[in-house]
Amino acid sequence: MKDMTAEKINEIMQDCTLCPRRCHADRTKGGNGFCRQGAEVTAARAALHFWEEPCISGSCGSGTVFFSGCSLQCIFCQNHDIALGKRGQTVSLSRLTRIFLELQAKGAANINLVTGGHFLPQICLAIANAKKQGLSIPVVYNSSGYEEVSSLKMLAGLADIYLPDLKYHSSRLSAQYAKAPDYFEKACSAIAEMFRQTGPAVFDPDTGLMRRGLLVRHLILPGQTGDSKRVLRYLHDTYGNDIYVSIMNQYTPMKHLSQYPELACSPLLRTLTAEEYEKVLDFAEKIGIENGFRQEGATAAESFIPDFDGQGL
């Protein structure tokens, strides 16, 4: 967003409506919005990350910045501690700009902004400043999908690749697991805006890395293959093979789920079965999804979750 300034950021933070929660929090007075974050950017890690899809990480790694806080906060989140703001440290706008440039200097395939929607004005200003100072690699906006279209428009001309989730089709599931019964409606509108900005995917012919485009992730939840099929059907009916889809089996039952007694008999307390995963993959093939990624091997493990130890900040 070319006209973003520190003064404009402060104005937005005083009456925050950046995400679909639209809680109107005055974040200049502390982290009292749904995202639990104040007006200053906080992050938990900035480093090369090798566990994204091959067209994002490549062989050199994605320059990933994990921001603290989240506007969705699914109860099963693998990044639970940073989603709740329990991990992270304050990062100034000038420092964030330098982080982007440092990741580029380390050979990152791209700058990967993970769950940064509640800091979008600050991120946009830092990206714009970094571009003025020589940032030339693609910028990836990595999101839960629960976004306001008006906020995403700030990224037009700044983000090259969108990497959103489309987590739930069922409003019952999104209400139960994320207190967001409007998730599907909001995420679909957000994804439409993302596609409007990028158009069909473009790849580097030499490296196979995505240079521009939309890659939608869907994490299959145990016991919810029917909902996953509805998500994939929507994506294919709407976008055909103009987008890429990543069908993920890495759901990991995290220890903190024991805090929710209502989940005592829930499938969320187990991993996805091989049969469930194959059922969804077979469905994707049947309806004609060609541009997609699948996960191989045992990906459901806490060892795959990065250490949010402040590296690179």
Lay out the secondary structure.
Layout: H1 6-14, E1 42-49, H2 54-57, E2 62-67, H3 80-83, E3 89-90, H4 93-105, E4 111-114, H5 120-132, E5 139-143, H6 149-152, E6 161-164, H7 171-178, H8 183-198, E7 202-203, E8 210-219, H9 225-239, E9 244-248, H10 274-287, E10 292-294
Provide tags for this entry.
alpha/beta; 10 helices; 10-stranded mixed sheet; about 30% helix; single chain; about 325 residues; 10 strands
Describe this structure in words.
There is one protein chain. By secondary structure, the protein is α/β, with parallel strands linked by helices. Helices cover 32% and strands 16% of the residues. The protein has ten helices and ten strands. The protein has helices at residues 6-14, 54-57, 80-83, 93-105, 120-132, 149-152, 171-178, 183-198, 225-239, 274-287; strands at residues 42-49, 62-67, 89-90, 111-114, 139-143, 161-164, 202-203, 210-219, 244-248, 292-294. Strands 1, 2, 3, 4, 5, 6, 7, 8, 9 and 10 form a ten-stranded mixed beta sheet that branches. β9 (244-248), α10 (274-287) and β10 form a beta-alpha-beta unit. α4 (93-105) crosses α5 (120-132) and α9 (225-239) packs parallel to α10 (274-287). 47% of the residues are buried. The mean pLDDT is 94.
Task: Work out the number of β strands.
Answer: 10
**Helical percent range?**
25-40%
The SSE string, one letter per element, is: HEHEHEHEHEHEHHEEHEHE
Which structural class do you get from the secondary structure elements? alpha/beta
Largest sheet: 10 strands, mixed
Shape: globular
Mean pLDDT: 94
Termini separation comes to: 24 Å
Please report which band the strand proportion falls in: under 5%, 5-15%, 15-25%, 25-35%, 35-45% or over 45%. 15-25%
Could you tell me the radius of gyration in angstroms?
Answer: 18 Å
Helical segment count: 10
Taking pLDDT < 50 over at least 5 consecutive residues as the criterion, the unreliable ranges are: none
